[in-house]
Model the fold of this input.
Amino acid sequence: MDRSVQQSEKLSAQSLRDLGSTAFERLGVPSDDARLCTDLLVMADLFGLKTHGMSRLESYGERLRIGGIKSKPMIQIERVANAVIKVNGDNGLGPVVGMRTLHATMGVAREHGVGIGLARGSNHFGPISPYLYEAAQSGFACLVCSNATTTIAPWGGSDARLGNNPIGFGAPGPQGNHFMLDMAISVAARAKIRAALRDGMAIPSTWATDEQGLPTTDPAKALDGFLQPMGGYKGYGLALMVDLLAGVMSDASYLTHVKSWVDAPEEPQNLGHFFLLIDTKVLGPSGWLLERMKDFVQILHASEPSDAARPVLVPGEIELGRMRERLRDGIDVDAALLKLLR
Done:
């Protein structure tokens, strides 16, 4: 097939990891950090989270080139209490700061049964699912959240004052079928709106408003306006809770103090992340928890679906199913992204 008209190419996960790691190294990122960042982004692609996978190389790379993100940060980890650590990411790549915080918090939780990690000086750290998966693989239940660039107006307000802050929870499941809830506060992620604009598609009117605060189906107007929080004022309250944990408590930026990586790509964002881990091995034998998790899921699956074509699912099932398929068959990588990587 003529490569000039080919829309995508299928790569193995390992090939994409190797290509991504080399690309980050060419941007000045040390090899260990390049691999850590790439592993997370490739896992996002395995899960089908395309807007948060290796496609992020472009925005991360632009900021690395202009100094908005440090390629060689001096990440510092401080134990401030027996089970609490604070991490200064020194404006490094978000996935690197995030994963180093997760690993350090896992170490604390192994010692004390529970661990809390608070990170500052970070940037966009990718989707939450890879963190949940890695924690669950090691036997930890995990609550993760991060603050983000302001894209949502306060409930009843008229301008963006808080971020579409992601939050997630994971727990170990039998045979790697982990529970993984990964969600943002808005009805739809801003990346989906950008994708709709790129593809010339309209968006549902429930996703966002224009700059006057009126619902819109035009993605261009939506990007000039505000995202809609899920559940109205309840989503607004949940977003504030995340910013208090990830931003205020970690000594990172919060609310309008967070710089936009789009409007000010050369300036540090100083995003904050929050990790709470429970070592499930202290609760009882692993078989005990896995049997309970199996029963937990079976109760939900036993519910007769209202639509036979749409069976009841548990958070994480779709992503883990995609991962198994793509590990076997390869990952479809957009031709433009491949060109950028190569």
